[in-house]
Amino acid sequence: MDTSPAPAGPPADPLPPARFAMFDAVTWKEIAHLLVNLFTSIVGFVYVVTTLSLGAGLSVTVIGLPLLALGLVGCRGLGRLERARARALLGVRVDEPRPLRPGRMGFLPWVVASVKDPVAWRHALYSAIRLPWGVVTFTVTLASLFVLWPVLPFLARAMATVDRALVRGLLQPSDELERRIAELESDRGVVVDTAAADLRRIERDLHDGAQARLVALAMDLGLAKEKLLEDPAVGAAMVAEAHGEVKIALQELRDLARGIHPAILTDRGLDAALSSVATRCTVPVAVTVELPARPAEAIEGIAYFTVSELLQNISKHSGARGASVEVWQAADRLMILVRDDGRGGADAAAGSGLAGLAERLGSVDGLLAVDSPAGGPTRITAELPWRA
């Protein structure tokens, strides 16, 4: 009888983790998303059914509608968490919906606006319909990890595609109008900040410039008045000196007024105003303005200050020998092209003054494009809505 040990059989199959080494990072993220679906869908379903049922059931009482409003606000929060999860695990980038903004202040307007909020209702729908799908994705993914692992990447990709469609369909702004509102609200913040900064600049210029000079002038004139009786010659000299100070103060006030809104722009339009700005540049500037009519006053002012700031940059930083400014209308847009033959290297993304200029243009649906390779030349194109 042969008592020798039986020959060893083939080695056991490697453990599942070794088989999964072929899965890439995207697949693992999709698998994680699908496994978590069950837990998030249970939480979302229970929350939506509980809060909305209570709110709707108690709507005949005083607390019903406020409870419903609070429940819908919570649905917005669930949607925010789901968008974050989709960004992290599915790579889905969707815009955040606009914040809830009641038309009037007060508790009752807030309740009405919350109950009528379409964003919250879409988020509630998303949470309500996710439970069956969460059960399916969790079951299929978990079983595939141990049984159908060779086809798991394909199953995960297919189910993750459905999740991406649900996120885009129910959790992103519903239409272009809502996205546009969100953009305009952001742009309004830029406009408010810019206006506040301009007001602070004007206040500082008045306080440190013309106001201080006029105070000193009033004191000098008081001394001159006393001297005229004691020593007319000295008093006359002091009056002459005060007259010079008046001229300087007037020039400072003119410069300040030009910085707010130049009179030449109001009276004669962009052509004359930009030609005047060009004369203050340290390099020769050729100005060409071809416009069939004048755009809206606000757009005209933005165009003026855009060119003015760009020419200041040329004077300070470009080292150019010459520059040009071209302004024309293209369909319903006002186009501005400023060029110089300087050293180049201008970059709006570097946090310079060009970045602030781009924000200002964006606040009125405008654009700023910078083409400035190292060594030059520099071409900066600004585009504004016409709005005649």
Concise overview:
The protein has 3 domains: about 160 residues, no CATH class; about 80 residues, Single alpha-helices involved in coiled-coils or other helix-helix interfaces; about 120 residues, Heat Shock Protein 90.
Describe it for me?
There is one protein chain. By secondary structure, the protein is α+β, with helices and mostly antiparallel strands. It has 3 domains: 16-174, no CATH class; 185-260, Single alpha-helices involved in coiled-coils or other helix-helix interfaces, CATH 1.20.5; 265-385, Histidine kinase-like ATPase, C-terminal domain (Heat Shock Protein 90). It is built from 12 helices and 5 strands. It has helices at 16-19, 25-57, 64-89, 107-115, 118-146, 152-170, 176-230, 232-260, 263-268, 270-279, 297-318, 353-362; strands at residues 285-290, 323-330, 333-340, 367-371, 378-385. The protein has a 5-stranded mixed beta sheet with strand order 1-2-3-5-4, covered by helices on one side. Strand 1, helix 11 and strand 2 form a beta-alpha-beta unit. Helix 2 (25-57) crosses helix 5 and helix 10 runs parallel beside helix 11 (297-318). The longest helix has 55 residues, at 176-230. Residues 8-15 have low confidence and may be disordered.
